[in-house]
Amino acid sequence: MTKDKQNLFGLNQQALTELFATLGEKPYRVKQLMQWIYKYHEFDFDKMLNLSKKLRQQLKDTTCIELPKVAKQDHALDGVIKWVIDTGADNFIETVYIPSDDRGTLCISSQVGCSLACTFCSTGMQGFNRNLSTAEIIGQVMLANHYLKDKDKRISNVVFMGMGEPLLNEKAVYPACDLLLDDLAFGLSRRKVTISTSGVVPALLRMAERVPVSLAVSLHAPDDTLRNELVPINQKYPIQELLSACKVYLNAGTQERHILFEYVMLNGVNDSVAQAKKLVTLLKGMSAKVNLIPFNPFPKTQYITSKKVTIASFQDVLFDNGIRTTTRRTRGEEVDAACGQLAGKIIDKTKRIKVTI
Ligand code: SAH
Ligand code: SF4
Questions:
Q1: What CATH class has 6-64?
Q2: Among 39, 133, 140, 314, which residue has the fewest nearby CB atoms (within 10 Å)?
Q3: CA 247 distance to own-chain centroid
Q4: Span 69-335: which CATH code?
Q5: Rounded to two decimals, what is the model's pTM?
Q6: Ligand 1 pocket, 115 CB below 6 A?
Q7: How far, in Å, CA of 244 to CA of 224, rounded?
C-alpha cells in the first residue's frame, strides 16, 4: 500500500461516511464513490467526474485504491485459479477461484499463516505471521473480480476458507463481510458468504450477533480426546462448548440459519463407522449439514486420505440418521490450491504455538 495513505478497500460504508463527514461531504457522495470503485472498477480519482475537484484532491492526498500485489497466478485444468499474493516482508498468502456449473466460489485468506496448528493443515504447520487488514481481504475479492470480469466469469460465493482463522481477526473480517453484503459494493446474499472457523467460541458468539453470514465449523472429530489432538484449540474450547455456541448462532438473527460442519477424512484416524455414529449423536436435532473433505496431502504430513469406500460408509451412517451430508470434490490439486494445501511462505514462525488465546 502507498505509504501513509489509507486504502479505501479497507473502509465499509459506515467508515466511509464517517470519513466524508470529517471532510464536510454529504453521505450521497459515499454512494457515488462506492459506485466508482465497486461497480465501474475505476481506481483513478481524476476520472470520478461527479465528485468535486476539491474532494478528488482531498482523496488523492490522504487515500488510495490499491489492489494487492500478485506474485504468481496459476491455472489448473479444471478451471481453478490460484493467486499468490505478496503481503510484504517476504510473506505470501493465497486466494483461490473455484468455478462450477452453477457458481463461482472465491476462497479467501484472513491471516498470513495461522497460529492454531491443526495437525492436518499445511497452513497451520507453517506458523503465523500477522493478521490481514480489511483492505487486504477485500483486495483479494477485487483482484479476482477485476480479472474475471471480462472473461464472462463471476464470483457468486465467498468463503473464508483460505489461510488463517477468520475469528482470530474479527476487527478486519467483519468490515470485510459488511462490504461483501453491501449492495453498493459486492451485494452478495448472506447465504453466499461463509466464515469457516475451527471453533473460537467467544468470537463465534460475537459473530452470531454482528454479521449475518453463513457459518462453517471445522469439527473433524466426534470426541474431545481426538479433537484435542487434531484441532488443538479444542483444549481451550471443547466440543460441547462449541456446540452450545453453534446453537446461539442458529437462534440469533431474524432469518433461518444452518451450520455446515466440516470433517476432514483421515485414514484410520477419524473415519470409522463407530466415529460416524458418535458424530450422529453430537449433531442430532441441529440444523446442520456435514461436508466430508477428503484429506489433501502436503509434504511431510503424517496423514493419508481415507479410502473412497470408507468415506462412502461414513457418509451412509450420517445419511441413514437423517443428516444431510456431501463429500467435497478436490479441486485445483495440481496447483496446490485444494483445502489445507495453501501454504504460502511464512517467514516468522515464532508465533506457532499450541493454543494461543
Ligand atoms: N481456519 C478456518 C478456515 C480455513 S481452513 C478453519 O479451520 O475452519 C478451511 C477448511 O480446510 C477447514 O475446514 C480445514 O479444517 C480444512 N483443511 C485444512 N487442512 C486440510 C487438508 N490438508 N485437507 C483437507 N481439508 C483441510
Ligand atoms: Fe488454522 Fe484452519 Fe488450518 Fe486449523 S485448519 S491451522 S484453524 S487454517
A1: mainly alpha
A2: 39
A3: 21
A4: 3.20.20.70
A5: 0.94
A6: no
A7: 15
